Amino acid sequence: MKNTPFTENHKAFGAKMAEFAGHYMPISYTGINDEHAAVRNNAGVFDVSHMGEFILKGENALDLIQRVTTNDAGKLPAGKAQYSCFTNQQGGIVDDLIVYCIEENKVYMLVVNASNIQKDWNWLSRFNTNNVEMHNISDKTCLLAVQGPNAIKILQPLTNTDIMNLKYYTFVKGTFAGVENVLISATGYTGSGGVEIYFEDKGDDANKIWNAIFEAGKPQGIKPIGLGARDTLRLEMGYCLYGNDIDDNTTPLEGGLGWITKFTKDFTAKEILERQKAEGINRKLAGFEMVDKGIPRHGYEIVDEHGENLGIVTSGTQAPSLSKAIGLGYVKKEYASIDSKIYIKIRDKNLEAKVVKFPFA
Fold first, then answer.
1. Separation between Cα atoms, residue 67 and residue 204, nearest integer Å
2. Disulfide check for 296: which of 32, 154, 327, 355 has CB 3.0–4.6 Å away?
3. Are the C-beta atoms of 334 and 283 separated by less than 8 Å?
4. Among 149, 144, 132, residue whose Cα is nearest residue 176
5. Considering the chain, what percentage of its residues have pLDDT values greater than 90?
């Protein structure tokens, strides 16, 4: 089990620690609801250094990315990023990721899920037939996500770059807390604004940046946030979690990711997905809220009014900001439309729920 450069900092804050994706990670500090509220209303700091980062360089770097991802990275100028996914030969999702264009047509950074680092590296390598220079910098990259409506105001005095006007899915490079060559992006997965801070793990830079953030945020009451609240925050927005809501057996169209599937270029399993789009899908990832009292959990069965199986819950929780139970799950397509009545099997009872649109409200 790997530590991140911030493990001792988490312990000092009294974090409840556990294994996640092969790393020793903070699950919560003061409680999920409290941490969730801190991000929605103020600012919080997530250690997400367990995520994977790959650098792709060379004149064929863009071509490789285009062949293995569904979105169109050819539209990215330097300083912009995009959400995308890798697809396998059957059209299933190998992983979802973010593509950063460092230098147009030449240098890119791919940020992938922690549990899929080796899998994704192998997948990319398999298609790298034109000698694209590839570097797995995951183990030496620190990543802090500072999220919330007050996050950027707290951080701006620490950097020489303008992050107050940083648009969603763009990034800048500069000095942060006295550390050079720091990449600051606005690609957050909480729905509350903020930035992500990427930098190399060398010397005492990790502590320097961590301490500077908490010192700057002390007057506003900035808090460290664990993975528990990260999950409830992303779920309220209807954002997918790889391994729960999307995986090798779900296609982008089934998972509601048709918007990042561009048929204007060639990519793995393009023909399969074109056919699926033309013929229609049999199941779809839907968001729902409970009508009856009960909390849906991953793996619970979704049924119709007659108790016939419609699918399974992939994610579910009592949403801290909404004071209601919500979830995601795959259902037969005829039950995926807004306001469709479905039932969640909880402790042998079929409890009513209804399909709603994202983000949950």
1. 39
2. 327
3. no
4. 144
5. 100
Characterize the bridge pairing of strands 52-57 and 341-346.
Answer: unpaired
> What is the rounded (10 degree) CA torsion for 258, 260, 265, 269?
-60
- Is 296 within 8 Å of 327 (Cβ atoms)? yes
Strand partners, 143: 198
Q: What residues does 185 pair with on adjacent strands? A: 171, 196
Which stretches of the chain are DSSP H helices?
A: 7-12, 32-41, 61-68, 117-127, 151-155, 205-217, 227-237, 270-279
Band (181; pLDDT cuts 50, 70, 90): very high
Say if residue 359 is preceded by a cis peptide, omega within 30 of 0: yes
Name residue, tokens 């890798």.
86
pLDDT in tens, 6-54: 999 999 999 999 999 999 999 999 999 999 999 999 999 999 999 999 9
Alpha-carbon distance values, 70 to 87, 105, 269 (Å): 7, 17, 9
Q: What pLDDT is attached to residue 53?
A: 98
